[in-house]
Amino acid sequence: MIIMNRGNITDIFFDLDHTLWDFDRNSRLAFHRVFNQYGITINMDEFIEIYEPINFQYWKLYREERIDKLGLRRGRFQDAFQFFRIRFSIEEIDALAGSYIDELPKDNHLLTGTIDVLTYLSERKYKLHIITNGFEEVQYLKLKNSNIDSYFDTVTTSEEVGVKKPNRLVFERALQKANTTPAKSVMIGDTFEADILGAEAVGMQTLFYNYRKVNPPIDYRMINEIPEIKNFF
User: What is the sign of the dihedral through the CA atoms of 62, 49, 16 and 77?
Assistant: First the structure.
């Protein structure tokens, strides 16, 4: 384990989806309601198996500014349903996508250990913050509905900045809102490119949550489960 330089750390920044908020579990529950609403009878396990890698790739394109928000919302649904030979009109796809976004923050399961870790860090007087590429209209609802909004001093979304992680402007805005410096800050997130390399580029320390069990470069601090965060602070 690469030891964290804790001496000057005052501020800890978290990604939200797949880092604290159990996106996969909550998303599946949202899809169940949307499928019932629209009479879609695809087996959920089979759909999720196809949808998740498609969604991950579309978010990569979105981060890289190669598609816009509408392109992300439409494209991931069109590609997933096309695999099952189900075709919807653009109007129907937009309605499905809108319903999914509406349903998503209604379930707010957190990853195991989240509350314990946030409480632990708060008691140790760290200031906590969120930096997220997620859609602004639902990210605040997720924080509120999961009852963790009170832990965070600031929330910075890519939509308010106008660019997405790993763009340094997102991290610079977050540091400015938190009234802190990179030398006093740590970024914790599950997407290596967006969270870890992005934060590193502005001089922040990092802690990679290996949610997808990939093989990142060995010279990075890494955890496999959320409770392990406490080992570094």
Answer: positive
Q: So what's the pLDDT on residue 2?
A: 62
Q: How many CB atoms lie within 10 A of CB 214?
A: 9
CATH number (3.10.180.10, 1.10.287.500, 3.90.740.10, 1.10.150.240) of 24-106 reads: 1.10.150.240
The two beta strands, 152-157 and 222-223, are unpaired
Q: Give residue 218's pLDDT band: very low, low, confident or very high (50, 70, 90).
A: confident
- Say how far apart CA 13 and CA 131 lie, in whole Å: 7
Query: What are 48-93's pLDDT values in tens digits?
Result: 999 999 999 999 999 999 999 999 999 999 999 999 999 899 999 9
137-170 pLDDT per residue, tens: 899 999 999 999 999 999 999 999 999 999 999 9
- Is 107 part of the annotated catalytic residue set? no
- Comma-separated ranges of CATH 1.10.150.240 domains in the chain: 24-106
Q: Which CATH code for domain 11-21+109-232?
A: 3.40.50.1000
**Matching residue, tokens 């997720």:** 142
* Residue 229 burial (10 A CB sphere; 0-12, 13-18, 19+): buried
**Of the listed 11, 15, 17, 22, which one is catalytic?**
15
